[in-house]
Every structure is written in structure tokens, then in C-alpha cells.
Amino acid sequence: MKKILVTGGAGYIGSHTVVELAQAGYEPIIIDNFSNSQESALAGIQAILGREVPCHRIDCGDAEALRQVFKAEGTIDGVIHFAAFKAVGESVQKPLAYFHNNVGSLVTLLQVMQEVGATNLVFSSSCTVYGVPDALPVTEATPTKPANSPYGRTKQMCEDIVHDAAAAPDNKVHTILLRYFNPIGAHDSAKIGELPLGVPNNLVPFITQTAAGIREKLTINGDDYDTPDGTNVRDYIHVVDLAKAHIAAVQRLLDRKASEVVETFNVGTGHGNTVLEVVQTFEKASGQKLNYSIGPRRPGDVPAIYADATKAAEVLGFKTTTSLYDSLASAWKWQQTLGK
Ligand code: UFG
Predict the structure, then answer these.
(1) Which of 156, 203, 281 to mutate to test the pocket of ligand 1 (most atoms within 8 A of CB)?
(2) Which residue of 83, 194, 285, 306 has the smallest Cβ count within 10 Å?
(3) Domains (ranges, CATH) in the chain?
(4) How does the average pLDDT of the chain come out, rounded?
């Protein structure tokens, strides 16, 4: 079995990817410092798989600790690097923490991978690297624009670091950069899902918490954008679909099929939905009426963005299969499980 190290493997996307890896016949090994994830994710993974997945409780910015993990685990066939801070608003408040954690941990990881001879990396990038795009949908060739937040900038810097490291004469690391659009929903079993700490920043956990009575009402951040109903357009991808894109990327690296040392893929559905469409679809999927009102625009929001998903389909053989309705139904099922 091929061993795949998953940094941030107890987090939202990480935990779903660990499950998909194991079910696809890989041997996932988790690294997590639990700064923004919870031990209960490990129990959820175990409940789904019927076995424990090994977890090293270390910070992947700690080079010595990383070396010890590689030493203890023997040959690591691939690394998926999720571990990072991810809240756009928080990154404006704490930019240095974001640069230190997100950029620092990638540099450390790449250095240690070079040292120990690990050669395959999948990196979590984001559609935030596109900034405010001139045309939609965005393809991988769409030029990146200035990021709207320090968070987005860390993802742009990390992509640059990967490219520069790959261009070095002694480089042996092959990387696939996956640019995620908006992950939502939870595992069908409702044993793992998103666990936002405090008041959620993101739309879907805010919606489900409002429907559950934890929040009084959802405020929609502006309805005066140049979009079909005036609210922002995003590409919402089910988290299990997103997890599966990592399996395709890992397999491509292992098969040495990549055409370049660094390849980039959008991972989205290829469809845009407005915030109001998400709210209305949630109401149908959950049978709950949602209390919401229109508020002002949120600083830093891009009016509209969605993926051109052609390259991932043609090259990775990856296509999403879960509808917005089913994604929101899974988010609601997970919220109800959390309430119990
Ligand atoms: N929104 C509301 N009300 C809310 C929360 C969100 O109207 O209470 C709107 C936002 O204004 C936006 C849409 O819902 O139009 C989606 O917002 P999210 O905060 O869920 O996600 P973003 O589109 O801001 O996504 C950003 C980055 C991603 C990153 C993600 C993680 O684009 O790359 O944040 O936090 F992964």
C-alpha cells in the first residue's frame, strides 16, 4: 500500500481526504497540530473506516518533528499539504501569523521532503489566487490578480515558492497545485464534517447554525452586485468530491504522468450559484425556513467567481457528482448530528 502523509489531516477537507484515500487503497498518515481541528475528527474517521488512522500530533513548521515522522514512517510515497490557516477575515487581523504559518510550513515541508527524498506533493491552493477576475469562468491560464486578503496572498506566495523550488537544478519534488473553489457539505455518514470554532465565517455553516437556532439570522453580504440577483456568485463543491480530486492528483503523481514538474488544476463544479440561490436551495433541502436579511457588502468579497473545470476533467479525469441540493442536505444532516 502506498503511504500518503496528510498534513492537516484532522481538518475539514483533510479528514474527508483521509477517508477517501483509505477507501481507495492508500495508507494515509495524519499530521496535525490541532490548532484549528478537533480530536473528534479522528474518532469520526475511525468510525467510518472501522480502524484507526495513525496521527502524529506535530506542527509541520517544526522541521525536526517532521524529520522524525519521515524516519518513523519509512518510505512516504506522497504528501498532501492541507495544514494552514484559512479564514480570510482573520488574515486581515493577523497577517504575520498567516505568513508565518502558511508560508513557513510549506518551506519547511519542502526542505524536509528534499532532505529525505520524498518526491510527490499535492498542495492546497485556492481560487483566491485569481483575485477579481476580468472574465468568467476562470481557467488555470487566467492571470492571477492581486489577492484581496493576506490569506489569498499566502496561497499566491506558496504557489510561487513551489514553482521556484521546482526550478532548482537539484529538485526532485513533483507538485500538483489544486485551486479549490468553495467546499461545502459533509460526509454522507455524518461522522465527519466542518467544525467551525466560534461564529462561522463561511456561508454554509452560518446557514446551518441559523436553521438550528444557534444564530438568530443570516446576513447576506450585499445584493447590489452585477450578478443575476445582486448577490455574490461562487462555485460550491461538495467536500467529498473535492477530496476525490486529491486521489486523482496523487495517483497522477505516482504514475509519473504529469507533463510538468508543477501542474495546476481548478477544482470546482464549473457552475456558479448566487448566495440567494444557496439559501433557497437550502430551504428546499432541509425543509427549514431560513431567517435572513440583506446587509452591506463584506470588504474583500469578489463579486463573482466560478471554475472552468475542463482541465481537471480532461487531464485528471475528475468530475464532481454531488448537486448543490445534496451538498446542502449533507451539511444540514451534519449540523443536526452535531446538535445531538
Ligand atoms: N456570505 C454571506 N453571509 C455570511 C457569510 C458569507 O452573505 O454570513 C457570502 C459571502 O459574502 C460570499 C459567499 O457567501 O459571497 C461565500 O462566502 P464564504 O465566506 O463562505 O466563502 P468565500 O467565497 O469568501 O471564500 C473564501 C475564499 C476561499 C477560501 C474560503 C475559506 O475564496 O478560497 O474563503 O474561508 F477557501
Answers:
(1) 203
(2) 285
(3) 3-184+237-268 (3.40.50.720)
(4) 97
CA–CA distances in Å: residue 138 to residues 67, 134, 185, 205: 38, 9, 23, 26
Q: Scanning the structure block, which residue is given the C-alpha cell 522541521?
A: 63
Per-residue confidence band for 159, with pLDDT thresholds at 50, 70 and 90: very high
Q: From the CB of residue 296, how many other CB atoms can be counted at a distance below 10 Å?
A: 10
What backbone torsions phi and psi does residue 174 show, to the nearest 5 degrees?
Answer: -100, 135
- Given a cut of 90, whether residue 106 has pLDDT beyond it is yes
pLDDT digits (tens, 9 = 90+) for 183-196: 999 999 999 999 98
Whether residue 234 has its Cβ less than 6 Å from ligand 1: yes
- Output the nine-digit C-alpha cell for 133: 477576475
Residue 232 Cβ contacting ligand 1 at under 6 Å: yes
Residues with catalytic annotation? 151
